[in-house]
Amino acid sequence: MKSTTRGRGTAAVVGGLGLALVLAACTAPPEEEGGNAGGGGDNGGEVAEGCEEYADYGDLSGTEVTVYTSITAPEDEAHIASWVPFEECTGADVIYEGSREFEAQLPVRVQAGNAPDIAYVPQPGLLQTLVNDFPDAVQPVGELAEANVDEFYSEAWKGYGTVDGTFYGTPLGANVKSFVWYSPSMFEEAGYEIPETWDDMIALSDEIVAAGGTPWCAGIGSGDATGWPATDWVEDVLLRSAGPDVYDQWVNHEIPFNDPAVVEAMDYVASILKNPEYVNAGFGDVSSIATTEFTDAGYPILDGECWMQRQASFYQAQWPVYQEDAVVAEDGDVFAFYLPPIDPENQPVLGGGEFVVAFSDRPEVAAFQAYLASPEWTNAKLESSGPGWVSANNSQDTSLYESPIDALSAELLADETRTFRFDGSDLMPGAVGAGSFWSEMTAWLATDKPTQDVLDTIEASWP
Question: Which UniProt keywords apply (predicted)?
């Protein structure tokens, strides 16, 4: 069987020799295909060589699973390729459809009774909206998929896929936002060490200023979404200053948005972003942060004008845009270190990710959702992907990561001593998380609007 893309008619291209070998091992004569339990039938216990990990999905020959996502060509090819082992070992056919209008069209399709079997939902907030608006359409996660999540993911990921006590969305990809980008060669030449605590980072910033440099560069410009990088700063720092429990209460509005703990976190952020001696190297004064595109904000590091920029793992894609031969590695042109903790006993990780949601409870759909929560799928996806994709699966083969920053991200996500929390603005009501929080943080930097006024305005906007 071959994965197909609806509207494109192209067969999947399998990336990587390792994945090709898996496919060769999984391919079997028709009378031997399939598994023995759990998905959609059995074949008397016979399992094709190389397909042992797929046995619980059953023989799904002749079935189809439709998948709808926001991922379009050419980025869709890695996903399509990653499904081929499942298809070869179960006999199912996975039909792909990507759309740039995904978030607007998915609710329309569900309401019209034309829902896909599977959708990749990019935020827990959208998942909650779908469950609340269409309670009979979204299917609870099946036993096999839930067992995979329980075994291979931290408890936090299951919680973000749960609405009102029912588990609806299994984790897919992930990203880490708790990073500070820097130049390893600049640090080495100056004799600077990577800071291990927040106080160390402030002391390093002061040392850079004393040496005549500007330690930080930043930008929060992002078109209609201008402001979101500043919200990431607040969320990352609140996790460190107040801890995960207070963070959860804040995100869920169990404490007001303008709680004193949030004021304290904003003060920590202001000690960097509003310090005229610290910012904004290569761009201007504090107010320039509001008009500097986040995509451009880190470039002065490559020019030797800036020393540090806080931004997520996915920022690695920006460096070659500015300098084609830029190397992202511990000994390369740029790399990133973990945003240091305020309390060494509390080392959280802020991030984001997508979730797999089912709109059908057919056996092949349940089996495919379980496959997407397995190490087998994660490893197949890694072999078919380039840099920029990360999983929080704790049994993945991390040697398959091509990018050192992706490998570091996976290591942080799998570290059981660290507490993972999802991007707070993605969990809040849209009027706040993608509205007043963005705009008020922009005003905080652009016009020096007082912290208390900013937080009071956001609190008043909460639905």
Answer: Signal, Transport
Asked if residue 420 belongs to a domain, the reply is no
What's the gap between Cα 85 and its chain centre? 24
Give me the pLDDT at residue 137, please: 98
Q: Tell me the average pLDDT of the chain.
A: 91
Q: Is the pLDDT of residue 252 over 70?
A: yes
The Cα 176–Cα 353 span in angstroms is 9
Whether the CB-CB separation of 22 and 50 falls below 8 Å is answered with yes
- 122 and 30 in one domain? yes
Looking at the fold, whether 342 and 364 belong to one and the same domain comes out as no
Q: What is the pLDDT of residues 68-85, one digit of tens each?
A: 999 999 989 999 999 999
For residues 301 and 257, give the distance between their C-alpha atoms in angstroms, rounded to a whole number: 34
Strands (E), 333-406: 335-338, 349-358
Predicted confidence (pLDDT) per residue in 223-239, tens digit: 999 999 999 999 999 99
Tokens, residue 79: 């996903």
Three-state SS across 66-78?
Answer: EEEECCCCCCHHH
**The residue to which tokens 């990561």 are assigned:** 401
- CA–CA separation, 437 and 425 (whole Å): 8
Q: Where are the beta strands (DSSP E) in 38-82?
A: 64-69
Domain of residue 230, residue span: 179-347+428-461
Q: How many of the other CB atoms lie within 10 Å of CB of 303?
A: 12
Strand, coil or helix: 311 = coil
Residue 288, C-beta contacts closer than 8 angstroms, at least 6 positions apart: 280
pLDDT tens digits, one per residue of 369-424: 999 999 999 999 999 998 889 999 999 999 999 999 999 999 999 888 999 999 99
